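not sure who needs this but someone in the group chat was asking about VOC domain-containing protein from Pseudomonas fluorescens so here u go. i didnt clean anything up, its just raw.
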Amino acid sequence: MMPALRAEPRAKVNELHAVGVASGGTDEGKPGIREAYTDDFYVAYLRDPMGNKIAVFFKG
C-alpha cells in the first residue's frame, strides 16, 4: 500500500517533495504532470527513510 497525500496548491507538491528528500527520503519521481493518469494530475513520489513509498499530488 502506498499513501497518497493531496496537496494544494500545486506548488505545495514541490515543497513537500523537497522537504521529504532533504529530511532523508529518496526521490522516486520528480514533481510533474503524469499524463498516463490524466492531463491535470501533478504528482511526486519519494521513499521515506524506512523505505515506504509516498505520493504527494495535486489534481486540478
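also The domain at 4-59 is CATH 3.10.180.10 (2,3-Dihydroxybiphenyl 1,2-Dioxygenase; domain 1). if thats useful
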